[in-house]
Design goal:
Blueprint: H1 15-23, H2 26-36, E1 46-48, E2 61-72, E3 77-92, H3 95-114, H4 118-122, E4 129-139, E5 143-144, E6 151-166
Parallel strand pairs: 1-2
Antiparallel strand pairs: 2-3, 3-6, 4-6, 5-6
Helix pairs in contact: 2-3
Amino acid sequence: MAFDPQFAIVTPEAIPDNLLAFIADATRQKEALTLAGLSSLKLIKNRTSTVANRLNPVYPSIAFVDDNDAADYAEDVIQSAYSATFEVSIQHKNPDVAVSQARIYRRALKLLIRNIPDADVLTDTGCTTAVLQTMEGGFDAIKTNEKQNDFVQTFQLRMTYTLTASAYQ
């Protein structure tokens, strides 16, 4: 007997990869860094869908940390809430510079995420609309190596979306 589903589901877990792909564009990233305050910063070239890159880091980096979703399948339109968290790491020999650069990267990433076209967010999700509801960010305590000659500032950025989709295939 073949499985022929009548009802649709949403797959918002595609959103982090969609966001990372949008952020990856060098021209777009350079422009966002300029608007955020400093165009001379390195582009984020190390993008990954896992924090496993902590073992062999290349800075600056961005990594997917986690996500959560909830969907209401009781109506003809699926209403879903989805949140995803990224971790960004910035390295510098001067701790003050690491902190100030991390703030610029955070502003640039917020600009990029806030301005991603809906079609790019929705790719492979099964959803018809996506509304960015909130962006939350927080800095971790700055870290150093044993010699205290290298500092890493990390921060997390969490995005929450409201998604809709048809309940039927």
